[in-house]
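Limitations
The structure tokens in this dataset are predictions for the assembled complex, not deposited experimental models. Users should treat interface geometry with appropriate caution, especially where small molecules or nucleic acid strands are included. An illustrative entry is reproduced here so readers can see what is and is not provided.
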Amino acid sequence: MPTLNWIGKDKIVNHHNDVPFKVLEKKYTFGDDTENMIIHGDNLEALKALLPKYENSIKCIYIDPPYNTGNEHWVYNDNVNDPHIQKWLHDTFHESGITVDDLTRHDKWLCMMYPRLVLLQKLLSNDGAIFISIDDNEQANLKLMCDEIFGQSNFIGELIWKKKQGGGNDSNNVVVEHEYIISYSKSFSSFRLGLDENYQLDDKLYPLSDEKGQYGLITLDKASIQFSQSLVFEIETPSGEKLLPRIVKGKQSCWRWSKEKVQKQYNELVFKNGKVYTKYYRPKGITQRSLLIDAVYGRTETGNDDIKAIFGTKPFDYPKPVSLIKHFISIASDKDAIILDSFAGSGTTAHAVLNLNKTDGGNRKFILVEMCDYAENITAERVRRVINGYGEKEGTGGGFSFYELGTEIFDSKTGLLNNNADTEKIREYVWFAETHTPFCAPKSTNNYLLGTYGRADYYFYYEKNEETTLDWDFLQTITQKADQYIIYADRCLLSDSEMQQLNIVFKKIPRDIKKI
Ligand SMILES: C[S@@+](CC[C@H](N)C(=O)[O-])C[C@H]1O[C@@H](n2cnc3c(N)ncnc32)[C@H](O)[C@@H]1O
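Predicted assembly:
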């Protein structure tokens, strides 16, 4: 498989491992207490912070990263000269002998995207899919990079979204009226894209209707199919008339159905004007087509109108239409799915999730990440207004919690467990480091139990401000039986033979906690 190379790639391919695990600090909850999250911060750290709980759990990811157009005059920088990203590039490369000035804007963009896509791939569930909006500036690079990260065989398709019509006659040679949406699954064999229910079918094709829905008629005899004498036989109409396949332009046609099928499904035949027909029903949806036309999925203006209707003004440049993102969510997830957008911008993805839930009674959850300071007054504010209603629009209901990136789980200077980190987050991390599965707090009378994995029970006997000791007193508190016990504590007073006999593995806090 051809691979893409660029300056800085060597330094970046494993960079996701060096990103510190940070705690997500909840600042407030708005509306109902749901699992919906809006996280303010760089998505590299936010995605890493989500791993312990959400690895392999996200059904649908939609991202709309900066396209690297070079435009710096929007509310966000649409290139890699954003001060946050410049600082991140500088910090990441400063010891490598490469200076940020050695990188072209394409190198920088690829370095920025690579580790973030690696983490997104880890978060995706086995039956999940990612959709990435992009334009000509980076489309070719992104495709090759995704082949490497997601695997060529997991490529779902490249959709073309017609985003505008008209104007542009002053463009050089070609007026670009489209963007791309590149889509990959985590595991192609476990993934199935849903039907496109928005596709505009031609109503003229389904002029009739019965209790099963709208339908059209198609003659049972066809001159165009492979002729077979066994498909030429008489069919008797309910009024006793006997019909044969017609002779069309001097050529004998034959029935599409065998004699047996006609006998078995006689009730499905329609007799009209001396001809035999079958019904074809209007389908609920069709297999996704690669062209997404603006009349159905919205265009750039639609995204602007969506946000203007909420704020009265347009506080954000080029938000995507709600209808477009809604479409990706509906073809790639079920009603309980978690939807992630780590380049959230004005929060269109949350808007789409809340709208869809309202329409079909679903319980989808969203996780948004936005680095810029408008995460609160544009992203979160838009979601609040969608929940409560705006203008004439009734609210969708629901709620979300707003988070900031907090302390690191490991102190970056000492490398030891950070005492200031939230204990529940440390428990999440320890469980994830041990099992690589998402943490789900167990129902137990023993507060130190993390859970059962395989045939072992994991205990994290940790207190922020005091040393803990694995001894007989602690063992008395364990009532749940397991084949093996993995117990973290500060000290251990049990002998090796006692531990062997009771199948206990002692792990010292914090030295023995694996850094992932
Ligand atoms: C093209 S906009 C997304 C627009 C969005 N789809 C909408 O409809 O409003 C890209 C967003 O990603 C944000 N962004 C860029 N780099 C980021 C990073 N490293 N972490 C989090 N957000 C980032 C930018 O601040 C910007 O708001």
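Some entries come with short summary sentences. For this one: The first strand starts at residue 22 and ends at 31.
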